[in-house]
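#lab-general

N.A. 3:47 PM
ok so I finally got the sequence cleaned up, no stray characters, all 84 residues accounted for. can someone with queue access submit it? mine expired

B.Y. 3:52 PM
send it over

N.A. 3:53 PM
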Amino acid sequence: MKGDRVEVVVDTGGDVQTFEIVATRAGRRVDISVSRGVVEVSELTRGGTPVRTGRFMASRIIAMVEYPAGEPEAGTDVRPGAAS
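B.Y. 4:20 PM
back already:
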């Protein structure tokens, strides 16, 4: 669903890097699959065709967070009239 996103934090040796895969258009979704020590995060069309894919070694992943569409981002206040 448009707006779904997955954030992956990966250990790159001496540093940490964050990657984000987002369902950018209506009808697209984000899919996660794990096989043989590799985690694959893909943005798919309605028909299942991959548009964008990120592959990560499972042993290097520090954190993986799924954000469903419609939920506000962390640190944002969505109450009406709330001060920013």
